[in-house]
Q: What sequence folds into this?
């Protein structure tokens, strides 16, 4: 019988299986956590890690894992990191995943695995794809316990953006703005998530969130159509639309606001930061984060001396 009629497996398959088993070994032996392999891995997730407390209790915290094994994934390196390159379909999938995702690169010869969380703020965008620097200090082992616990504890973006936006509005308007929520009664504004007021001036407020390709401009056009309707019916004169992204890359390309009769429109670029306490930070001139809104009143840990120049549809800039 010819050998070609016998079942066979490729070296790439063996390499992949080696990576899965190596990650499982590291998780079980050094972290004392649980690793589960996904039965179908071709959609972009090879397994999941479930965290346990030192006493062995699990609190349901999970991390999804994409594993790449072998010399082909370790070829491109800097002094401090290994460069992983991927396609946009997987980045879109991971950025929308229900739990945090890490990429793990494995050296089967030295039996070492390095990991990096998939954060949009760490992604480098290129014309035909993207790259992520997996830091060599991030060795999958006992030393990774604290950092991976922090990753697993992250809230999902959609769960926190509105809360972070309300907090930013408070600082931006010196806590003078009164906010009505989406569930306010009577409901006398449409489409926008918030209606704010400073004195007798009303603000229609909402945000758009960037995906891996940037901002969906069709959604922005819908906001403007509803802004016109609210202005016509209720005489509201201000629109504040936040463009929220984890990557400064996308904030650099937000559009100019349109000109609508009787309405002043502000487009504000906000960087979503999920490390530590989740927060939104405004991007001002020269791609710097705004550290203050008035002299002597700082926000957070940044000390950038930034003059706030917001894009405004009436042609004025305000500091």
A:
């Amino acid at each position: 019988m010819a050998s070609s009629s016998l079942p066979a497996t490729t070296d790439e398959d063996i390499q992949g299986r080696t990576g899965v088993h190596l990650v499982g070994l590291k998780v079980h032996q050094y972290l004392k956590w649980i690793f589960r392999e996904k039965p179908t891995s071709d959609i972009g997730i090879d397994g999941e890690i479930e965290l346990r407390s030192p006493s062995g209790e699990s609190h349901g915290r999970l991390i999804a894992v994409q594993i790449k094994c072998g010399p082909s994934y370790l070829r491109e390196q800097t002094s401090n990191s290994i460069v992983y390159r991927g396609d946009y379909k997987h980045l879109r999938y991971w950025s929308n995943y229900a739990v945090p995702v890490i990429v793990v690169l494995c050296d089967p010869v030295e039996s070492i695995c390095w990991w990096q969380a998939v954060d949009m703020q760490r992604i480098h965008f290129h014309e035909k794809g993207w790259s992520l620097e997996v830091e060599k200090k991030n060795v999958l082992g006992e030393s990774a316990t604290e950092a991976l616990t922090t990753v697993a504890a992250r809230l999902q973006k959609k769960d926190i953006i509105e809360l972070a936006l309300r907090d930013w509005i408070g600082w931006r308007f010196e806590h003078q703005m009164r906010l009505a929520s989406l569930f306010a009664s009577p409901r006398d504004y449409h489409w926008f998530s918030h209606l704010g007021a400073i004195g007798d001036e009303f603000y229609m407020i909402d945000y758009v969130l960037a995906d891996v390709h940037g901002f969906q401009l069709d959604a922005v056009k819908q906001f403007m159509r509803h802004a016109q309707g609210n202005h016509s019916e209720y005489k509201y004169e201000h629109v504040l639309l936040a463009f929220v992204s984890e990557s400064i890359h996308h904030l650099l390309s937000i559009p100019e606001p349109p000109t609508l009769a009787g309405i002043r429109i502000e487009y504000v670029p906000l960087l979503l930061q999920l490390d530590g306490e989740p927060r939104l930070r405004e991007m001002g001139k020269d791609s710097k984060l705004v550290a203050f809104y008035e002299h002597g009143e700082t926000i957070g840990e940044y000390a950038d001396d930034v003059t706030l120049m917001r894009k405004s549809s009436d042609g004025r800039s305000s500091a």
